[in-house]
Amino acid sequence: MSPPPEIRIASLVPSLTELLVVLGLAPWLVARTGFCIHPAADLAPIPKIGGTKDVNLAKLRRLAPTHVLVNVDENRLETVDALREFVPEIVVTHPNAPQDNLALLDQMLGLFGHLDGVAERAAALRTGLERELAACAAVDWPARRALYLIWRQPWMTVARDTYIARMLAQVGWQSWPILDGGEHGAARYPALTGDEPWLGDIEELLLSSEPYSFNATHLTEAQALCPNARVRLVDGELLSWYGPRAAAGLAYLRELAAV
Questions:
Q1: Distance CA 53, CA 12 (A)
Q2: Does 244 fall in a domain?
Q3: Distance between CA atoms of 207 and 222, rounded to whole angstroms?
Q4: Helix, strand, or coil here: 129?
Q5: Is residue 4 assigned to a domain?
Q6: Cα separation, 246 vs 96, whole angstroms
Q7: pLDDT (tens digit, 9 = 90+) per residue, 103-145?
Q8: Same domain, 200 and 129
Q9: Section 33-57 average pLDDT
């Protein structure tokens, strides 16, 4: 089936790009970032237009998108302002909790739900997410102090009002420090000095696979940061990518918390 010429979608967010493909919208996708890598086979023919923070605006303009999907955390405001000069519809997203994926699906349906199969695929994603949210809510999880690291040198973590922290909260893991970062900006991902007094009270220390690629060589260093914590490497894509990974991420968290 040839895509209607009036719809040309560009995605500047990896998790949204994956969502578009899962919804069956790959035929309408005309641009992606270099970080949009899943699913690889579907995205291979789609032109890359730079990164999430350094978009090649000239190349994107030539691709003439009618819709560009952006995210408050992932993309820069100046990029979005520049897009307004030549993009008819900029789709701004900002999921801050796993439940927000339901509104994200509604947002995609409002834009593309008239295209063949999109509504049915969105309904399947909704059913899976609702099932996993209910499974988390059905357990009386013991409260655990958690530190989720996304970077080293310096150590960086997540504020409590971020998507990741609210994912952790689904299994009773309370992210530290006790800090809200606001709607956007660097405060959402605070740096640590390494001598915070509460580090000794952390029970679960989680080293994410992204954006910093933590691996087994970092376990000893991380353990020294939180000497009383259980230290584990975790799949950052499952815990931070919204869209089609949200349900799988909740199931993954339940497995982690049950051990």
A1: 9
A2: yes
A3: 8
A4: helix
A5: no
A6: 12
A7: 999 999 999 999 999 999 999 999 999 999 999 999 999 999 9
A8: no
A9: 97
Nearest to 7 by CA among 115, 135, 105: 115
Instruction: Name the least confident of 3-12, 94-103, 177-186.
Output: 3-12
Instruction: Please give the tally of structural domains in the chain.
Output: 2
Q: What separation in angstroms does the CA of 243 have from each of 59, 161, 226?
A: 27, 18, 32
Please name the helix (run of DSSP H) or strand (run of DSSP E) that holds residue 256, with its range, or none. helix 246-258
Nearest to 141 by CA among 31, 255, 51: 255
Tokens of 257: 């918390």
Q: Which long-range contacts (CB under 8 A, 24 or more apart) does 30-33 make?
A: 30/63, 30/64, 30/65, 31/59, 31/60, 31/63, 31/65
Tokens of 121: 């695929």
The token pair at 10 is: 């560009």
Domain end marker among 117, 135, 153: 135
| The pLDDT of residue 4 is above 60 | no
Taking Cα atoms as reference points, which of 236, 218, 238, 214 lies closest to residue 226? 218
Q: Are 239 and 257 in contact (CB under 8 A)?
A: no
pTM for the model: 0.93
The Cα 144–Cα 148 span in angstroms is 12
Domain region containing 88 = 9-135
CATH, residue 199: 3.40.50.1980
Same domain for 150 and 90: no
Helices (H), 33-178: 40-43, 57-63, 77-83, 100-112, 118-137, 163-168
